[in-house]
Design brief:
By secondary structure, the chain is an alpha+beta fold. Helix content is 33%, strand content 21%. Strands 1, 2, 3, 6, 7, 8, 15, 16 and 17 form a nine-stranded mixed beta sheet that branches. A four-stranded antiparallel beta sheet has the order 11-13-9-14. The chain has a three-stranded antiparallel beta sheet with strand order 4-5-18. The protein has two domains: 3-194 and 365-453, Aminopeptidase; 196-246 and 296-361, Alpha-Beta Plaits. The longest helix has 21 residues, at 3-23. Helix 4 (159-165) packs parallel to helix 11 (400-409). The protein starts with a helix and ends in a 9-residue tail after the last helix. Bound molecules: ligand BES and manganese (II) ion (2 copies).
C-alpha cells in the first residue's frame, strides 16, 4: 500500500476526533456573541498548523481574524495557496436538529454538526493531507500557504483589503478551495463557475410612527404596501428582471455548455417532488441547471415591517424593509449592479415615502478556464481520491475570495468539492460523510504530490 493511504488508514480515527474538536467551536460569524468562538476557531487552526511546522500568523481585522500559514519547503517548487473558511452559518432553527449542532455525532458514517461540510470538514481535509505528507515524507513536495478566514458566510467583508495589503505572503501558482460539493454520491466534480452576489436592503419610511389604520388609513401611505409594489416591479411574470442594464454584462451560455449541462441534468419532476414544491419556476427559456448555475437572479430573502405577532393589529406601519440578494454571473459586477438596482428602486418608488438602502456587501462571479494551471493535476488527484474521473460542473453559490484572488493576484482557483449536495449546508442536521473526508484527504495529498516538478518530467 502506498505510504499516504497507509498513514490515512492508520490515523483516520484520530483525524475524525480532531475534526470533531474543531466542530465543537461555535464559530458563527454573523453573531456578535460568538466573536470569542470565532477567535477560538482561528486559534485552533493556528496551533495545529504551527505544530506541523508552518510559519503562522493571526491577522486582526475589524471583523474576525484571518489566519495565514506557510511552509516553503523548496523554492524551486510551485506554491499552492489553500483557502478555507472557519466560520459557519447560524445554527437556527435549533428545534429541527436531531442532535445539538455543536456536539458532533457520527450516525451511519456521517459526521453531524454545523460546519461539518461547509466548510470546516472540507478545509480540515487539506490540513490532514499536509500532515500526512509531512509525516510520511518528512516534508511537503511543494510550497503551501493556507489562507483561512472567518467571514465567508458574511460576504468576506475584510478579506479583499487584507489580500491587497499582503500580496507578498499570498504569492502562489494556483489556489485550491474545497467549499463546494461533488455532483452526486460517487460523482466527484471540479466546479469551474460560481455565481457572484450583490446583497442589499431596502427601507421604506412612511409616517414618523405607527398609526391607527381606522383613523388614518386611506389618507397616508402604507410602507408595507408600497414596498410590495416596488418589489412587484423588479421582475415580470416570465421571471425577467426589470432593472435597466441588469443583463448588459451577462455572458450567455455557449452551445457546448448547454449540451454539457443537458448531459448532467437530473429529472425535474424528481427535483420538484424532493423539494415538496407545487411547481418549479424560473426564467423562461432556460433549464433548471442553467437557471441555477448560469443565470442571474433577484430574490427577496426577508420581508419585514408592521405587526406579525399573534392575532390582529390594526395599524398603518411606520416603515417596512426587505433584504434582497441578486446572484450574478460572469461578467456582471456587484458594484455596478448595486448602483443600477438602487437607481431603479428610487425611480419606481412614489415620492410620498422615503426610501433608503443598506449595503450588505457582495462578491464577484467567476469562471475558471479548462486550461487553468494544474487543472489536469486536479483531475488526476480526484480520480485517485474518489476512484472516478471528476465531472465539470458550475454552481449557483458564491465564494467571494475566488474573484478577489483572480483580480488582485492573478491567481486561478481550482474548486475541488468534497461535500455532497445533500449535506444540508446552512440547514439543520448538516453532515459530512467520513468516507468523503477520507477521500478528500487522499485527493489533497495526491494533488500536492502531483504538483511537484520531477526532474525532466512534465507534471501539469
Ligand atoms: N460554500 C458556500 C458556497 C457554495 C454554495 C459553493 C453552494 C458551491 C455550492 C459558501 O460558504 C456560501 O455559503 N457562500 C455564501 C456567500 C455569501 C454569504 C456572500 C452564499 O453563496 O450564499
Ligand atoms: Mn462555504
Ligand atoms: Mn456557506
Amino acid at each position: 500500500m502506498d505510504p499516504v493511504k497507509k498513514y490515512v488508514q492508520e490515523q483516520k480515527d484520530r483525524f475524525v476526533k480532531e475534526l470533531a474538536g474543531f466542530l465543537r467551536i461555535p464559530s458563527v460569524s454573523a453573531k456578535s456573541e460568538r466573536r470569542e468562538a470565532c477567535r477560538q476557531a482561528a486559534d485552533f487552526l493556528l496551533q495545529e498548523l504551527g505544530r506541523l511546522g508552518f510559519s503562522t500568523s493571526l491577522h486582526e481585522t475589524p471583523g474576525h481574524p484571518i489566519v495565514t500559514a506557510s511552509r516553503m519547503d523548496d523554492p524551486a517548487q510551485p506554491t499552492v495557496l489553500i483557502y478555507g473558511h472557519y466560520d459557519v452559518q447560524p445554527e437556527e432553527p435549533l428545534d429541527l436538529w436531531t442532535s445539538p449542532p455543536f456536539e458532533p455525532r457520527i450516525v451511519n458514517g456521517n459526521l453531524y454538526a454545523r460546519g461539518a461540510s461547509d466548510d470546516k470538514g472540507q478545509l480540515y481535509a487539506h490540513i490532514k493531507a499536509v500532515e500526512t505528507l509531512i509525516r510520511t515524507e518528512g516534508k511537503l513536495p511543494v510550497n503551501v500557504t493556507f489562507l483561512l478566514e472567518g467571514e465567508e458566510e458574511i460576504a468576506s467583508t475584510h478579506l479583499e483589503a487584507f489580500i491587497e495589503e499582503n500580496r507578498e505572503i499570498l504569492q502562489g501558482d494556483v489556489a485550491v478551495i474545497s467549499d463546494s460539493s461533488q455532483y452526486g454520491p460517487g460523482m466527484p466534480a471540479i466546479c469551474y463557475g460560481l455565481r457572484g452576489i450583490c446583497a442589499d436592503e431596502i427601507r421604506v419610511q412612511g409616517a414618523n410612527r405607527d398609526l391607527h389604520s381606522g383613523s388614518y388609513g386611506g389618507a397616508v401611505p402604507n410602507p408595507c404596501n408600497v414596498l410590495c409594489e416596488i418589489i412587484a416591479k423588479l421582475k415580470d411574470e416570465t421571471g425577467r428582471i426589470q432593472i435597466p442594464g441588469f443583463y448588459e454584462d451577462v455572458l450567455e451560455l455557449e452551445a457546448w455548455e448547454r449540451e454539457a449541462f443537458a448531459a448532467l441534468a437530473g429529472d425535474d419532476e424528481d427535483f420538484r417532488r424532493q423539494l415538496g414544491v407545487a411547481g418549479l419556476h424560473g426564467e423562461e427559456g432556460y433549464t433548471t441547471l442553467e437557471r441555477k448555475w448560469a443565470r442571474p437572479t433577484l430574490d427577496v430573502n426577508g420581508l419585514f415591517g408592521g405587526y406579525s405577532g399573534e392575532g390582529a393589529k390594526t395599524i398603518i406601519p411606520a416603515w417596512a424593509g426587505a433584504k434582497i440578494t441578486m446572484r450574478l454571473v460572469p461578467n456582471q459586477q456587484p458594484d455596478k449592479i448595486r448602483h443600477l438596482f438602487r437607481e431603479y428602486v428610487r425611480r419606481v418608488a412614489p415620492a410620498y415615502v422615503t426610501v433608503s438602502f443598506v449595503d450588505h456587501s457582495g462578491g464577484g462571479p467567476v469562471r475558471i478556464p479548462r486550461d487553468a494551471p494544474f487543472m489536469n493535476t486536479a483531475v488526476q488527484a480526484l480520480e485517485y481520491g474518489f476512484g472516478r474521473k471528476p465531472v465539470f460542473i458550475r454552481e449557483g453559490g458564491s465564494i467571494p475570495v475566488v474573484s478577489t484572488l483572480e483580480r488582485k493576484l492573478g491567481l486561478k482557483t481550482l474548486l475541488l468539492g468534497f461535500g455532497l449536495p445533500d449535506d444540508n449546508a446552512h440547514a439543520p442536521d448538516e453532515k459530512f460523510s467520513l468516507a468523503d473526508y477520507e477521500r478528500g484527504i487522499l485527493t489533497s495529498a495526491r494533488f500536492l504530490q502531483l504538483c511537484a516538478k520531477t526532474a525532466g518530467a512534465e507534471t501539469r
